[in-house]
Batch of 4 targets.
Target 1
Amino acid sequence: MNCKMDSVLPGATYCEILTIDMQHILGRHNETEAFEEWRFISQVSSYANLNNDVGHIYELIVSMAINHSGVPDLLRPAFRRAREFGYKYIKSKK
């Protein structure tokens, strides 16, 4: 894998950030608040880029240094993969 090794988040390179496109999990949607999965990510995220004048662009970053409980069923595979492969962050985007 060709990966930029510059640190982009505290202690993490591009290769250590698992990016998930929430539209692949939840389907096309505009109202993030209507989904349990988005509400969960909003609650546990350590960084949020919301409503940035680009219309419906959302990015939330969750640190995997914390053991999160109550992960919704549809997000469990991503959180499990992040743990198994040593990702330091999960970036959820729409």
Target 2
Amino acid sequence: MFDLFAIFTKGGILLWHYQQHAAVSVVRVVNELISQVILLERFHLATFSLGQLLLKFKLDNNFELIFVIAYQKIAKLMEIDRLIENLFSEFRNLFAERLKTKAYFDAISFDTIFKPILKAYEIENSNSISSNRTMKTFTESKKFSKLSETQKEKTISALEHKESNSNETIDETLNLIDSNSYPEDTSHIQTSFPRAIQGDRVGGARRGRGRSKNHVESKKIVPKKHIKVGRTWDGQISQVEKESLNYNKEDGPPDQTIDVASYVDPVTAVGGMRGDLSGIDTMKESDTKPTPKVSRFMSMLGGLTGSKPVGKDRLIPVLEAVKEHLITKNVAAEIAENLCASVGEQVEGRTLSTFTTVRSVVQQSLRDSLSQILMPRRNINVLREIITKRKTVAKPYVITFCGVNGVGKSTSLAKVCFWLLENDFRVLIAACDTFRSGAIEQLLTHTKCLQSLYPGKEGSQRVTLYSNKTNKDASSVATEGILIGIRDGYDVIMVDTAGRMQDNQPLMQALGKLIHRNTPDLVLFVGEALVGNEGVDQLQKFNQSLIDYSFAYGDSVKSSLIDGILLTKFDTIDDKVGAAISMTYATGHPIIFVGTGQMYTDLKSFSPESVMNALLK
């Protein structure tokens, strides 16, 4: 039934374990749980999947212990939480003195107590499975328990109203059947109905004939004289049409002048973004006064003092307030709930000293969880990586921008390009958006603007745009651009891709082909800071699609994943920075750049500390 039982400390010291099958490695189970759950602050998870096993665990915050049970996914087990609680209580009561002194390396004999409890559970579980279970109502379901208190009240009232209306309808139907109130003679219905229709038709026809003459006379249209044009029978383009499409003539339309001031201040901006980007600052002077909701949240925390273990009944209202506060900050509802559950798992059962309040503990636990979430798994320093690659392999650093439609990929690409030009790099932009009309022209406008700000030497531009309008294969265009960049000695290749929805399989397959074929050094997902749940869905499906289609092309998972996030429109959200938490929590990808406006200089680096302050204020 069960494959493994284990008790270990948060530091990884194994105190006791019971193994029923030798095929299940206790070391592997403990290490995976520590690396994938404990270190990532994912204590809210009810279970953790490890191959064919499911891991169920419980924390003891007083003694810093973790109890884990491993069993097969196909096993039907009931009331596992109660079993864990019973075993954990027995273990703590029996070895409380050792745990207080942290005598972890003394021999522990727990088998004599463990086996009778396990035997009783197995009998009870088999009886529970064999007995019939009634279907739960919606108010008893897990989905209902995840709702907020306000949503629960509305749902209950709606269900009661629906039930009362249903009962009234049934009563009215029964009364109607009992009254036998059927018409005795229904012949008049059959005779009068066609007459009424016939009368309406006659009157309508007469009225129609009466006004049709005036109606036609009042709307007489004088036909224009038709000029016959010779038809081209072979379907070939005519000479006149060729001339109208030729823009290479000397008397053709002149190039439009680029308004550089609409993108950047050419006087003060040039030379002001050398080195690393400055971080975002979401805290303002007007933000020092807490809002009413935050004040209520803080007062609820302040009312809970130490002096005794923190129980679940004392934490529920506090965590509910934290959840609502996070949702108002644009954190996705599911992620806000998971985050609160993780904080609750860390605080529950902890005995505080007399001068320690639950408020300070919850605040610190929430801040630690957010810090762990926002901590990047891969430390990406773009400037350093460009210089390192140029010195080691003498090839350009390739950055690919991807995302859904309308989030500002091309504008963000131009901002990053401006920053790289500020740091004395030569940049080639590969226009691989072969789908959207005007995509190449938009990049051409940005390129001309940047060329006017950073004019290169004769025959050697600082920034160049490469495009191929005759080639509709984006991966081939990117390959051509990279080869030209290598030939001409560019430092950075920036690949602009077409916007695509995350459910569009052909376009996602084309993106997977582009990444597999060209192996960029950095793949950036461009998303909006305005969205919550939708942004998480976009990022997750983009990442999963890249993995799936890269497997189809024979690529590995590591080289297929999105490397980082560029959040746009960050200046429009004030302190509602929840999208940053949602995207990072759901995928683990770091936020590298943040767009704060339309100008080239409106590009910042991501600051986890600033986001946490805005989220917790």
Target 3
Amino acid sequence: MISLIKDHIISKIRGLINIPFEIAQKKLRPLINLEKFNNEEVIFVMSQKDVKSAMGNEVLPVKIETDSVLLKVFENGSSNDQILSFSVDKNYFVKTLLSNVGLPREKLKNQHVLVEFSSPNIAKPFHIGHLRSTIVGNFVANCCKSLYGRVTKLNYLGDWGVQVGYVKAGLEDLNISTEQLSQDPIRLLYKAYVDAYNRNDTEERAKSFFSELEHGTCSEDNKVFWENVRELSMNNLRDTYSDLEIKFDEYCYESDYKIANIKELLKNLESHGVAKRKSPNDLLVRFCRYYAPNQAMKYH
């Protein structure tokens, strides 16, 4: 397994920074990533910036002892973030990957794996893209369960956003009654959404509806409307998943992260080092080992 190669690299590093292996393993293993695997070479990488964040400003020396597994260590990257690269013996890498084929599950380290998949939007048909994600995700979850024993299958549903306002506007303008909606909910909800979205006079109504919903200033009737749309969609999705014989352990919703919770969420992202402040109103989320300026999360 790749974790064995990561641990081999960590064992080489540990002797230079003088900390217990278990601590080094916990802090450094998540930072080591497979960068390249082809016929020529196998390269693992680790960001010095990530190391400093995890180890309290510790910087790893480049002169790490090599051996028959770890063939070469070199450094590259920008002046702001040097990248340590570890060249690993290709034959050892392949042998390690194949070493767990047919291995009994009890011999593998027990881990809790979260697999999030499917994740459609409410008020819209379950299309081929969702079907693909659902089948692939369920396959991955079954593989993880076979290997590790404990898996949580999570479905993160899109029940929030201006789309809800478009559905509301479309239902009103098309004069679709509650009785009609109950007989063919998904088709009519989607029809209402498409009708409203494609007209120029509905955008402000849709945004206004969702703004009130998001800030908690909407009427009780509008809140109940949104809850009913979500429930109608959920009932349809449950039937679809039942036909596919797929069960989820948990359902989460975009509405779980309303504007009232966002500031606290942003504080947590920053305090845990997931996001970095660029300006008073901009946070940057780190993707891989680079800060991507065009991926700023702006909030007010």
Target 4
Amino acid sequence: NSRVLIIFFSKLTHLSIFLPAHLQTYLFAYLSDRSRVAAAILTVGDYELQVSLSEAVCRLTPRRDREQRANHWFPTSDISSAFCDIRDADFEVDCRRFLNFINCYQGDERRVYTFPCLRALLGSTQLLPPKDEKLDEFWIDFNLGSGCVSFFVDDPQGFLWVSIHVPKEEVECSSIQLTADGCTGAEAVLQLTTANPIMHHNIRGQTLELSFKGEYHRELEEAVGRVLNVPEKLSHTHTHTHTHTHTHTRTHAHTHTHTHTHTHTHTHTHTHTHTHTRTHTHTHTHTHAHTHTHTHTHTYTH
């Protein structure tokens, strides 16, 4: 057990440089007690640290003993069962499922928000998810405990995954735009602007754009607000145009054309700006001709 702890202390030292001082202390103090380590998985608030703590518990506990011990470590049988579903041979994939489950299970008390990403752009360069046939989604984690956005990307120059961390201290502003088209459906696009460039190999940029399915935009707003604590904007654009034409054929004709254009622009910082533009054009022309010696022509234009 002491040898395993030494290995993990060495491994976690690299991870700990991304953590605030109080979380570093939290990490090493709790590693010596498996029950505390298991409890910390639920509360530590950083996905990568959750993975390392989960791996520590798995390595320190023989598989035959995990079910019995898990029932004491975790508060519900659902969480215990999910932990016991982690297979050593597929640890990364199974641990992702376990952590996604327990983080979502905690509802409003969760300290890590995770969403599947459609695409990620650093500046104008697309970042690719790790190449793993068992990996079903490109996951983005919003970590309340460490106060950062983190995710893994493909490393074209190596065999390991590379993680990108965006600490809240580096984020100058964020915006969430809800877009829609007839082909791909609604998308929630999060854009983060950082004070200093984000580096990934020879790629650098100060703008990170992350796109998600539109169904996540409410939770995404909550995650950004809680984790980054920076002003955010939400933008919606809708345009409606209606044209009505009525023609009546008797001795007079009426033509009415109504054009209504509504443009709504909402900007949250949290500030709401509503702009309504209405244009009404009414043209009425009445002409009456009588076969007497006089003619009356009345024209009204509004």
